[in-house]
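U., I forgot to send this yesterday:
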Amino acid sequence: VFAKAGYPVTVVGRSEDKAAGVAAAIGASLDRAISKGRATEETKAEALGRITSVTDVAALTDVDLVVEAIAEDVDVKTEMFRRLDAVCKQGAILATTTSSLPVIQVAAATSRPADVIGMHFFNPAQVMKLVEVVTTVSTAGDVEETVLQLCKAIGKVPVRCGDRAGFIVNALLFPYLNDAVKMLEAHYATADDIDTAMKNGCALPMGPFELLDVVGLDVSYAIQRQLYLEFRDRGYAPAPLLEHMVTAGYLGRKTKRGFRTY
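Result:
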C-alpha cells in the first residue's frame, strides 16, 4: 500500500526467507491487480523498486514511520517496541496494527509514548479502505493528525477511536460472531443456514462462519478473549466450541479446516 502510493519502504523480516517471501507476495498481489485491470506492469515495477527487504530492525534508524505487524501477542509486541525505541530516531512515529490489544501497553514500553499510535489496517490491506487510528492517553495530537493525513494520502479511509479492546469494528463484530458459534453449538441452526440467513437477511457479503474461517479461529478466539478480559461481561466470554476448534488445530482456511473443510 505504501509503496504503491509512492513511499520508500523498508520491510523487516524474521529471516532472509521471510523477507524475500514478503517481496514475492507483494509481486503476486500486484500480478493479480494487473490481471483485473487495476494496475500495470509499470506501476508494479515502480512499487517493487521502492521496497527494500532486510532482517535487522537496525535498518530502521532513519525512517519516519514504523508500522509493526508481527504476532498478535502483547509480550512479543512489547519487546519489539523496546527494540524500536532504541533504534529509531527521535520524532519517528511508532504504530501497531493490533486488532484488539491495548496500544498503551506497547507505548509504555518505550521512552516516547507520545509518538506511539494504533493503525489497524483491515484485511486484506491492499483492498480494504478502512484504517482505525487508535490514540492512547499519551498519544500526541500532531502524531494523530499526521497519521490521519497519511492514511488519506495512501488512499485509505481513517476513523479515529480510543484505545479500548476491539476499537470500533471488532468491538461490534466479534460479539455477533461469538453468538453465531453459540447458536451452532446449541444445535439451534446449522452453519450453512446461519450463513445463508445473514447473507440474505442482512445483505452481508459473508456469513459469520465464512468470516471466522477467513479471519482465523485462533485470531478470532484471541480477540474475543481480549474483549472479555477488558469488559468482564459474561456475554463476551468465548463460546466453548470456538476454543475447542482452536485447541484441535482447526483454524479455518489457513489450515484447510475450520467450520468447513477447504
